[in-house]
From TrEMBL:
GO CC terms of this entry: cytoplasm
Glycosyltransferase recorded as keyword: yes
Name the UniProt record assigns to this protein: Purine nucleoside phosphorylase
GO BP annotation list: nucleoside metabolic process
Domain of life, source organism: Bacteria
Recorded metabolic or biological pathway in which this protein acts: Purine metabolism; purine nucleoside salvage
PROSITE patterns: PNP_MTAP_2
Length: 272
């Protein structure tokens, strides 16, 4: 279990490298790292150099923080994140969000690659996350509560900021980018789902399935941060018509959707 001291050490390390205030943090999902090419005057910090950070083990996850400007705003991008299935506790994988908040950042954009369970979706679609159902079977807040960070029993009635959901939809419309809206339901992974599991996840109200994001969103809400979530639908996860899936296909589709993804996120940052 990470302590307040661990959070402060990591954030002091980053503050020593980048002294200005940072407006927005963006967590980039699998295959979505292209956004970092649009960060001006980038300063790169490898996760492995930040005290207390775990090491990213997934292919396609670069594992570094990039701080710089997009549309004149200071942003911090996390290129690569930590996952539950890598063997870390949810407390450990959400440590970077604790550090981000400690840096004074209140606005968070969290992105991921996900399977589309809503039959109206198509692979390559972008989905604004309107809400989630935590079916990971765990919570990052289990264990000692640090009251300085947030309450024992955090409210989740507005886990995804309503204002940001409408902002994202408005920006998408202005940029002529088609977006979907839906509910994200994350499993622990690392297996993709069986047809019966997908039938269940759809039945309980999920539109997209993935293996990330929700732990970070819970921790961000614990600390009263404002969150926007965006999924890139990399494959259709339909119980009755399920094609074999592998990580390469997920990465390929994410890469194909990356241009509109980057355009949308940059547009949102501009107005956040
Ligand atoms: N299931 C779970 N996680 C995923 C998927 C999926 O179909 N696609 C991308 N991440």
């Amino acid at each position: 279990m990470k302590s307040i001291k661990d959070i402060e050490s990591a954030s002091l390390y980053i503050k020593d490298i980048f002294k200005d205030n940072i407006d927005i943090a963006v967590v980039l999902g699998s295959g979505l790292g292209k956004l970092v090419e649009f960060i001006e005057e980038p300063i790169k910090i490898k996760y492995s150099n930040i005290p207390g950070f775990p090491k990213s083990t997934v292919k396609g996850h670069a594992g570094e923080m990039i701080i710089g400007k997009i549309n004149g705003k200071n942003i911090l991008a996390m290129n690569g994140r930590f996952h539950y299935y890598e063997g870390y506790s949810l407390n450990t994988i959400t440590f970077p969000i604790r550090v981000i908040k400690n840096l004074g950042i209140e606005k968070l954009i969290i992105t991921n690659a996900a399977g589309g369970m809503n039959p109206n979706f198509e692979a390559g679609d972008l989905m604004i996350i309107n809400d989630h159902i935590n079916v990971m079977g765990d919570s990052p807040l289990i264990g000692k509560n640090y009251d300085e960070l947030g309450p024992r029993f955090p409210d989740m009635s507005k886990a995804y900021c309503k204002e940001y959901i409408s902002l994202a939809n408005t920006v998408a419309e202005e940029l002529n980018i088609k977006v979907r809206n839906g509910i994200y339901a994350p499993v622990s992974g690392p297996t993709y789902e069986t047809p019966a599991e997908l039938r269940y996840l759809r039945l309980i109200g999920g539109d997209a399935v993935g293996m990330s994001t929700v732990p970070e969103v819970i921790v961000a809400n614990h600390m009263s941060m404002k969150v926007l979530g965006i999924s890139v639908i990399t494959d259709m996860a339909l119980a009755d018509n399920l094609e074999p899936l592998d990580h390469t296909r997920v990465m390929e589709t994410a890469n194909k959707a990356t241009d509109k993804f980057v355009k949308l996120v940059a547009g949102i940052i501009n107005k956040m």
